[in-house]
Amino acid sequence: MNPIIIDKGKCTGCKKCLEVCIYNALEIIDKKAVVNIEKCTLCRLCMNVCKFNAISFFNIDQGKEITSYKGIWVIIEYFNNNIKNSFFQVISKANELSEITKEEITVIIIGKGLKQISNNFKKIFSEYGVKNIKLIDCINIINFFPEDIARIIFDEIILYKPSIVLFLGTNFGRSLAPRVASKVRTGITADCTELKISDDNNLIQIRPTYGGRIIASIICPFYRPQMASVRPNIFEIKKNRISMDKINLEYKEVEIDSIEKIKRVISTLKKDSKDISIDEADIIFCGGLGLGSKDGFKMLEYLANKVNAAVGATRAAVDKGWADASKLIGQTGKIIRPKIYFGFGVSGAIHHLIGMKNSKKIIAINKDPRAPILKIANIAIIGDVHDILCRLNNEL
Amino acid sequence: MSNYFEKLFSEFKIKNVLLRNRIVFLPHYTALATMDGTPSEKEIYYYTERAKGGVGLIISGNYAVSKSGQMHRTFINASDQKVIPVFSKITKRVHNYGSKIFGQITHAGPTKMEKPQSDLWSPSQIIEGSSGTHTMKIDEEEINEVKHAFEKSSKNLIESGFDGVEVKIAHDGILRAFLSPHYNKREDKYGGSFENRARLSVEVLKLIRKSIGFEYPIGIRLCMDEFEDDGYKLEDAIRFAKYLEQNQLIDYINVDAGTTWLSYIMQIPPMSIPLGYSEYMSASLKRHISLPVIAFGRINDPVQAEMILQNESADLIGMARQLICDPETPKKAKKGDVDGIRKCIACMDGCVGQCIQFQPIRCIQNPAVGKEKFFGINKLKKTSNRKRIVVVGGGVAGLKFSEIAAKRGHEIVLYEKNNFLGGQLNLLKKIPFRNEFSEILRYLEFQLVKYKNIEINLGFEVKKENILAVNPDVIIIATGSQRYIPQEFQALNTYSSIEVLSGEWNEGKNIIIYDKLAKNEGLGVAEYITEYYDNAKITFITPANNAGEDINFLNLDILYRKLFESNFKCIPYHEILKVKDEKLIFVNKYSRREFIINKYDSFIYIGDIISVDNLFWELKGNAKELYRIGDAKAPRLVELAINDADNLARSI
Amino acid sequence: MEDIIVCVKQVPNTTKVKLDPVNHTILREGVESIINPFDDFALEEALFLKKKFNLKVSALTMGPNQALEVLNYCLSKGADEAYLLTDKKLAGSDTLATARSLAALIKKLGYKVIFCGQESIDSSTGHIGPSIGEFLNIPQVTHIEKILNYENEVVKVKEKNEFGYNIIKVKLPAIFSFLKSKKKLKRGIYSKDTKNIKVFSLKDIDIDENLVGLMGSPTRVVKIDVDDTIDYFLKVDSNLTAIERIKIILKGGIEEKKDRLVYKEINNTIISKLIQIIK
Fold this sequence. Notes:
Strand order of the largest sheet of chain C: 11-10-9-12-8-1-6-7-13
Helix content of chain C: 25-40%
Structural class of chain A: alpha/beta
Shape of chain C: globular
Number of helices of chain C: 6
Number of strands of chain A: 20
Largest sheet of chain C: 9 strands, mixed
Distance between the termini of chain A: 66 Å
Strand order of the largest sheet of chain A: 9-13-8-5-6-7-14
Low-confidence stretches of chain A: none
Distance between the termini of chain C: 51 Å
Radius of gyration of chain C: 24 Å
Number of helices of chain A: 11
Structural class of chain C: alpha/beta
Oligomer: heterotrimer
């Protein structure tokens, strides 16, 4: 069936619709625009540009009234008695979207034993412009599984009809989000690196494809809620303080007929820190010539292990045999982008700087005040490397 | 052994030419031809050596298409039939070793190296920046001559067995000059609009295609950014490339940048330019065309090369100097011996420094360059008479000697007075524009570790008795040199460059540098101070006619860019007369008028260097074979130290 | 009833895919199609179980006719059956519509164990596994490194997460998504043979045509662009003057940080600040 109608009476053959159609689905026949159904994807870009309102869409009735869905939700995992920093990145982005859609932000916090700390949540989220907090306390849960949590979120969505639901792209989030979307029978976009609101109030979900080289912009025009999972460490955290009394807090206890009967976690193995590759690590401790010896390097590795940081090395350290070549950070080694980079006794030859300059935060410790790395560090400490390592070791 | 560099060693096809890997030996002038531009036997061995070393594609070149197109009479004229026999030998030998070879042809246009520059063929009459000479605006007849010269030369190349032809529209040459709005102000069909400026290149490419047929690839070396304000930029180059692609005129693009005026350093980047700096150029190009792209620009490491390929920034990796320095780079990379690759440090002294003076190409780290017939791969003969050799001094000369002699099978006992090897290299590398000299040390140290027949004694200042006690057959004195400040120039705060680089000086703000030699050391120390001492004010006094007069002009460019950004003033033409009561008295060498500096914080005297060779004189008459190499012989450059060492080690 | 169903996808070799800069469409000419590498690992695990427990392995894919090439690849590696779900009306499916269609066919075939790759290298959503799980109402385990055990209708797997690993036991039926492992894969053979492929079209599966293909896909791609923020370290803005461009290159694209904090000596406040940052 043909859901696109071009009113020949209104169409002037101006070809604006042809210009925006990226699927080459429009052509001019007898001076009027004609659509090729095989190629058309119903994206409606043409409808948006037609000044003469000649293009319209046959309304596909989903049994849902899209305009009745309101609100931006962010799903928060509270599994280990803490909220990962990255969730606040999502909330910050939600604030940006909220400015345009004028809809309120609700965080849905899934966890266990939430009653006692419910006031803390008000305080925390008051910093981020969140007007509504829903605490979902899974009181008898043993492990958090997507199958169970999806059901909980589904129930909330059916009741409260949000327009947008955002997930953080943790491993859990990435297996939860599609489960929820499939349950609700709505669209979902994974791994978004940008979110915007279009002129007709749709959420534009932007994400990399084809190995990251091609960026796609996606919308979900006829279904609600619009769902997206967000890639961690892309969005900046921005505060938006509101008064705590403006916040609605709702607390709900849920007993789940859990999937524990069918699926169980038998044991958990902690990752061997040696396994952390510098490509993926959030924190990198990099050692340079200033460490003085292989023993100095070993102390660095010991400390890194304690905090789950990966260990990197400069060319000089690798050449001296203090570290393996796989740890080399630099133009002829690896180019890294961790959240935090620590340079212990690294002077900062340009090849190394090029390799690590994209780190979000750079902390450099060197006793030579003229070490080039100190100029590009966010925090530069002129002091003895061993002193700092000892003291950090004692505290951690 | 699995493949270390998956993409780098994957095959690639340019049109029908199958390359065994992605490494390309980029075209460059070698000055190995005879004085009248006849290709010599040296060229044959030069290119064969790189094919032996495992490169995928050689593009030999900078061949002129006509007499008027020669930058200098030592540039080979590819339109002359006499080149065909030697060229045929080159292609045959290169093919024998499994590599493919293209020939690059160009017309010098407004860039001539003979002084005084004459007949600078150009689209318009301008003052050519690098020579300060007026160019000649060529007429229709001369344009046709250029076109047919390209046509004829390409035919000769194919007849000589080349697998393809590359046309130079790069940092020099008439074709880029026509493309450039800086050079081309014509008002006929060859000037003005984009299509007009591109017209000559298009016509040349069409003629070549007609002349050599469709089966041979034709590519261009394209300058991607002239780095001149009224020249063309990256976007324009990409537009040109797309235009050529759409008209199916070319089969690949070899990327290049800069021009011979304000941006020399972009075309043959010296040490101060970061490795792989031009990746963004080939990457941007690749986003707009689907033809193969060759990257360039200080790519000297297989890890770096692989990353560039993985990033999809290019299809092929171009290396010129890296393969000059270590022709076996592909072989070594393929078997994973990355540390064993001797990396080019872009010092500019051996290769470019020589060719610019029309001297045969050399490399400071690779004494075999230009002499591959005698010193190339597999030419090192093992000794039949194993000797015990004592080497005194673990600096560049001592290490190089030990490397070669040990490879040949001799027994080496090395003594070094410091707790570390490298000698003066350890200070030299502190100078920013010489910082990669540490690579020379790294490579040599790595080589030494491989041999069981080398004994290294660190921290031992050896004496005559110690040496003789070991009963050596040969003694090599490689004890280097030291700085010397004559008594009459010593004031309270006088320092040598060694003291400055070691940090053993009271810097202060007001610094006077006296550079007697006008070579790398003077401006090098100035650069070091500028880099690390933020408040320093430098007054640089030299008897030369300008600061660092004898420094290779490419390095000088970098130094000037840096120094004039900071507080640096130069007073040339002045010699130092004496230092009296802490006052520095200089005199203009022409007028003999005096110039006195009363107030300053530090005075750095750069000039006298003397060999440390006492052991040599002491041991004379006491040793069977006694030699001195490197600075111990006479203070000179790193290249000569390595040459001394290499020559001697091969002959012992 | 199938023993093990492995869902596979034919994808372009993404490293070679380009964007047409004029039309903003994906150019696939000359780009070879391969099996999604993650699916290949899932297949390897399935074949391992086949050997060990004497199970039947069936490969299943949804796509245009050309997709049978990857099914033949699976057969050449040792799969026993190959199913192709193909229909013009399925074109343009997003992950919801795809999962729905696949689930419908899997339901028809009968299932116990379903394997698939964690994600595909072209769209990398990682949605198919969980979505199929939802449509069939069966448990899922994702990010699997390997199968540890399989007996008595219970499968034990090693699941990777941000902190390390979980060992999980699941009662069948269930769906499993596999990560790429460090193992070297055996190579299969692609061919255009049709004889061993069982073909299903839309009418063979019980599903409303409005719920599949473009009509059944809630999400739409409205724009595609080349990623301009690629990793090479130096990007030089052409709008700067020539000298400024050279300056940037000389510095390696590295800029001094203007708002940096400099501490000239170490004391306890600094240490605690550092520790705070680490946490």
